[in-house]
Amino acid sequence: MTGPGKSHGRLTIGASIQPRDLMADRPALKGAWTAKVITLFPEAFPGTLGLSLTGKALDQGLWRLDPIDLRLFGEGKHRNVDDTPAGGGAGMVLRADILSRAIRMAMQGRPDDRARWPLVYLSPRGKPFTQTTARKWAAADGVTLICGRFEGVDQRVLDHHRIEEVSLGDFVLTGGEIAAQAMLDASVRLRPGILGNAASTEEESFSNGLLEHPQYTRPATWQGLTIPEVLTSGDHGKVAAWRQDEAERLTRERRPDLWEAYEKLRK
């Protein structure tokens, strides 16, 4: 399976059961934040994570992505990973013993402290993924995500490994791969050096409990619509006040749940 990598200066190299072409010979800086993803479709990664700033940072070794093929831990000629639900019912359930093998490999040498290294099953019954969750994951050493398929996973493996359940939203996907990419994108971009401008993450939606204010750029007039005069006034104090007012207005109108929480914090 996978053993501890040998350090070569700031670079670390480790063996992996992961197909080599998915790794794309990307370097990993020593101590780089790492995302391990247990999935039946490792070829789905990096997907959109390989584009734009997250992709550039991945190529530079600022973070590491390690898709782990669950099928390799399956049993029999066809490497089966699932079985019928106990008690009957439609669909199939990922087996505890199979998934546990993959988890043990993924967590080998990783901190047992879940604050330092979250172990997460992407599930529609989990607690909602939020910007706070992204900040928590970004502050950790890395994260291991389990992408479900079929009717879910055996509850015993969740209990045994103290796995946290997190949901992307109140809807059901065919698998966790899309959710994993979304959550990793939200987390990776908060890591130092990824965006290159810390102020960008401080002013965007949810960072202070509010939705982001409207944005404008050139041309000054388009389709008879002009940029609000305050934004071209050069008065930074007035600009800041306008943006705060607009953020509060949008949050109050569009997300009363966020507005209620924001109001409680201000009291």
Topology of this structure?
Layout: E1 6-8, E2 11-13, H1 20-23, E3 33-39, H2 52-59, E4 63-69, E5 82-83, E6 93-94, H3 96-106, E7 119-128, H4 131-139, E8 142-147, H5 155-160, E9 164-167, H6 177-188, H7 198-203, E10 221-222, E11 225-226, H8 236-254, H9 256-266
Parallel strand pairs: 3-4, 3-8, 7-8, 7-9
Antiparallel strand pairs: 1-2, 5-6, 10-11
Structure description:
The termini are far apart. Strand 10 and strand 11 form a beta hairpin. The protein is built from nine helices and eleven strands. The strands form four sheets. A five-stranded parallel sheet has the order 4-3-8-7-9, sandwiched between helices. The N terminus is likely disordered. It is elongated, with a radius of gyration of 22 Å. It has 267 residues and is of the alpha/beta class. The relative contact order is 0.12.
Question: What descriptive keywords fit this protein?
Answer:
alpha/beta, 267 residues, 32% helix, five-stranded parallel sheet
Bulk shape: elongated
Order of helices and strands: EEHEHEEEHEHEHEHHEEHH
Parts with pLDDT < 50 across at least 5 consecutive residues: 1-23
Separation, N- and C-terminal Cα atoms: 54 Å
- Overall mean pLDDT stands at 89
Structure summarized in a few sentences:
This protein has helices spanning 20-23, 52-59, 96-106, 131-139, 155-160, 177-188, 198-203, 236-254, 256-266; strands spanning 6-8, 11-13, 33-39, 63-69, 82-83, 93-94, 119-128, 142-147, 164-167, 221-222, 225-226. The chain has 267 residues and is of the alpha/beta class.
